[in-house]
Amino acid sequence: MRKTTRWLPRGFGRAFPLLVWLGAPLVLASAAPPPVAWAEPNSFEQRAIEARALEGFRRILELWKQELYFELYDHGSETSQERISREDFAQRMVELSWVPVGEMNPKFLKSAFRFRTMVYLSARITFGDKFNPQSVFSKDHTFLLLEEAGIWRIDLIRLIRAPFA
User: Fold this and answer.
1) Exposed, middle or buried: residue 115 (CB in 10 Å: 0-12, 13-18, 19+)?
2) Residue ranges of the alpha helices (H) in the chain?
3) Which of 47, 101, 124, 156 is deepest in the core (most CB within 10 A)?
């Protein structure tokens, strides 16, 4: 009597090489590196993304200085636009007595890359009183900029609270 130790169930012996041959590509495909679109950007791409975000922030700040609140609303993130209507945003911004004045000092302007569509921007903003131009103060702020539909956007509620935060 011959004793054999079988580690495969009965009838599975012939199908095993075929399963290995068909299953190997699946295993190898799951271990493949991610596609290029998912890969992290290199340092040059990061600097380019930060530069575009910085330009978007300057545009937002310029609209705020000129008190163009309906246009500024268009640069708000989708979630903040869901939280506040265009008219309410414009009304609350008009009621603020503080607006940014002067130019930003590049010494106090820093960007921190997080993802392709997400950048934190720290800036020292000088605020001036609309009714008393001699009353001026500066504050350091950090804003989250998100790229949505090709435009760098900001949280509108954060803008409303900026002079007081």
Assistant:
1) exposed
2) 16-30, 43-65, 69-73, 78-83, 86-95, 156-161
3) 156
Q: What is the CATH number assigned to the segment(s) 42-161?
A: 3.10.450.100
Distance in angstroms (rounded) separating the CA atoms of residues 116 and 113: 8
Domain boundaries, the chain: 42-161
Per-residue pLDDT tens for 58-105?
A: 898 888 888 888 888 988 888 888 998 989 988 988 888 887 887 776
Question: Angle at CA 96, nearest 5°, toward 123 and 129?
Answer: 70
Mean pLDDT of the chain: 77
How far CA 36 is from CA of 56, 112, 113, in Å, comes to 26, 22, 19
At 139, is the secondary structure helix, strand, or coil?
strand
